[in-house]
Amino acid sequence: MTTTTPSAIGQPLDRVDGRAKVTGHARYSAEIPVPDTAYAYVVGSRVAAGRVTDIDASAARAEEGVLTVLTHRNLPRIAEQPPLVPSLAGTAAPGQTFFPMQDDTVHYAGQQIAIVVADTWERAQHAARLVRVSYEETAPVTTLDQGRDRAYVPRRIFGGRTPGRLERGDVETGLVDADVRVEGTFTYAANNHNPIEPACTTAQWEGDELLLYDTTQGVNATQMTVSRLLGIPMSRIRVMSHHVGGSFGCKAVIHAHSALAAMAAREVGRPVKLVLTREQMFTSVGHREEQEQHLTLGAKRDGRLTAIRHHKLSPTSHFDDWAEPSIGLSSEIYACPDYEGVYRLFRANTMTPTFMRAPGRASGMFALECSMDELAHELGMDPIELRLRNHTDVDAMSGRPWSSSGLRECYERGARRFGWSGRDPRPGARRDGDWLIGTGMATACYPVAPPANPQRARARLYADGTAVVQAATPDFGTGVATVMTQVAADGLGMAVDRCRFENGDTDLPNIAAAVGSAGAGMISAAVHAAATALREQLIKRAVGDPGSPLHGADPVDVVVRDGVMTAGTASDAYADLLRRNFQPDAEASGQWSPPAGEVPYRMMTFGAQFAEVAVDAELGLVRVRRMTGVFAPGRVLNAKTARSQLMGGMLWGLGQALLEANYMDPGTGRWANSSLGEYLVAVNADAPDVDVELIEVEDVIVNPLGVKGVGEIGQVGAAAAIANAVHHATGRRVRKLPITIEDLL
Description:
Elements: E1 3-4, H1 18-23, E2 38-44, E3 50-56, H2 58-61, E4 66-71, E5 105-106, E6 112-118, H3 121-128, E7 132-137, H4 144-147, E8 156-157, E9 162-163, E10 165-168, H5 171-177, E11 180-188, E12 191-192, E13 200-206, E14 209-214, H6 219-230, E15 237-240, H7 256-268, E16 272-275, H8 278-284, E17 287-288, E18 291-299, E19 305-316, E20 338-347, H9 361-379, H10 383-389, H11 407-418, E21 431-432, E22 435-447, E23 455-462, E24 467-470, H12 480-492, E25 499-502, H13 519-543, E26 559-561, E27 564-567, E28 570-573, H14 574-580, E29 585-592, E30 604-616, E31 621-632, H15 639-658, E32 689-694, H16 718-730, E33 736-737, H17 741-744
Parallel strand pairs: 1-26, 2-16, 11-33, 14-15, 19-20, 24-25, 31-32
Antiparallel strand pairs: 2-6, 3-5, 3-7, 4-6, 8-9, 10-20, 11-18, 12-17, 13-14, 13-16, 18-19, 21-22, 22-30, 23-24, 23-29, 26-27, 27-28, 30-31
Helix pairs in contact: 9-16, 12-13, 15-16
């Protein structure tokens, strides 16, 4: 109908919340001052399996300042247990289909069995140590070796969204037809969530109205889940979460602490703040499960794949069939006629695992891309050439074409930037003093998952020429407030500094939890819809206003720039229009819903990862010297924040490759590492030079602005590229994560 002159979208603008964060003015959920706040401290089970036979809280209750001690004996029963993550849409999304402190059963170590509430956090912590718990303990099952013989194939996994078995063609025939086969078993240590801000909730009741300050990726998801757990209408629950100090999946679903804080606040009749300790983060918000993947590739001498068999074994909880969808991409991204993928689970004494950055894809691509590298080595073929020979323009599983790709360009651009053409393919051929130097690459891809429900936003223009656009979504470090300000500015045809984005509150229009790299696409679609609706409303008002210089103009001919509507030589500013009509503001709402039914396209973000490592063969040390990632995420909303997201993902991939690991003690069922002193993550000294390039590809299918998202894909393929580089440096193929000194000695 009308046009604007785009200027803000894609620009590397500084973050609008940057000053507030570096000066300490940004308030995170635990920092919101609420008068008369009491503090809750969780008591976790010391055993992994059995039941609680007695809880003696008398000493704790006698301590000064203690308001109550809640256990399974006096905590109210929940009204309903919502299903496990029924969609990515911001519908009720509990962390597991089990709510603690409803009976005396213990399913896993660290399970919440009591809550102490006191007038200070220190008193609550002290009193919690005085709670005496007796158990009837049974032997736990926690490790792969303990559960292997009792494994089963689930009907569906990943919250019911993924089949437990995927097949096409005849994999046995494909393997028989192959000239070359590579086969390997890949093992992965469990990974735990450690965002800089622990999970926390402050709950405040005013009569039958509940206000929650929650650390969450989706305020509407918290609202819906707590509504169902407590049996109160959603309209009586308000959730606020303006700034979230990182999430990466553990705050994407709603774990028990949010509702427990509300229950405790109702019990003591005053606001209650519940903040998980760092140790409790290891047992309360899910994790990436320990897993074993067995992968077999069959290929002809020319490199064409004939068969892929990909099996996975992992533990799940006693109450959910959960597994990362690790075998999904191996069924889709390479042309191959015969495929078999199977998930096998066993019931273990663990809480339900959960989303962790690039869930399933980061782990699955490690097995697939290391196997592809091994196949290239067996064939004497360049690894990029092997991938190009198996490149497909359609999803190999469904046959549906990609809505857009750009993968070939990522290979080409990445190889050129990294200097791949000068590579000597022989392992161990390059040295730098005591260091063996190797280079490796891997494909990166991550599916685009549109939400199931409508996404909404609201735009308001004031007579002073400023605008505010609103949507409920929190900002958990991705820079959503910045990029949505840019989207709003372009939609309205205004300068960025005249626009503001308000977010993080269920009183604002609903937005689904921003998970699975879907946030940028779905939020921008809603914001764009609201902004353009308001722009067109104002243009229609101007051309119908006898006092406007644009009176009688065709709306199609009106162009808006810097808040001024122009048609030919006539112009009228937004602010002038409103003031002339004694109108303090104008408002419009916008909504975007993904197409109903099955879309005849498959949506995927593609990229290519490259890494150079140095390995000290005598000491087994690995140092990543440089990394290059080239990605095609559709339209880029902000080049600076996108590169930051991708760089962070690549560095996390480095941590996944070389550092991050946790293990369950098979006797006690407890995590061996439960602090950042023991659980290793990458630090500045580990970080190499990281080169990120963005390739914009047009995608008219995925959403109105063609945005695919970059939150996850930076991690996918990074560990595989590093492992392939280690093989190139040493000639040793390591099929486990993380790669440790012991693996290379």
